[in-house]
Amino acid sequence: MFATPAFAQAAGAAAPSGTDGLLSMLPMLIGFIAIMYFFMIRPQQQRAKQHKAMISAIKRNDTVVLSSGLIGKVTRVEDAEISMEVASGVNVRVVKAMITEVRAKGEPAPANDTKAA
Asked: What does the DSSP assignment read for 54-106?
C-alpha cells in the first residue's frame, strides 16, 4: 500500500544461485576448518603425544597418579600394565593408559600445617 514501484521491483531480486553461492561460502568454510584444526584438533594430538611419552618413560619406584585419584609407587612395569603399591604390602595391577601424572621420585609430601596449640 505505501510501497513505491521501485521498492517492489528491488524486493524481487533473486539471491545468487548454484555455484555462485557455494563459491562465495567456500573461503568462510575453509577458514572455519582451519580454526577448528588449530584450536581443537592439534592441541589434542599434542597432549596425546605427551601422554604417550610420559607412559613409555615410567620406571620402577616412580610415584604415579591414576585418573581415579589413586596415588602409588610403581613396583613392576610390563607392556600394557604396571603393578603399583598403594599401601605397604598391597599391590594393584593398573592399565598404563589410566595414569594421568608421573611424579618425580623423592618428591616431598605436602606439609601438614595443623599443629596443636
From this structure: HHHT--TT-EEEETTS-EEEEEEE-SSEEEEEEETTEEEEEEGGGEEEEEPTT
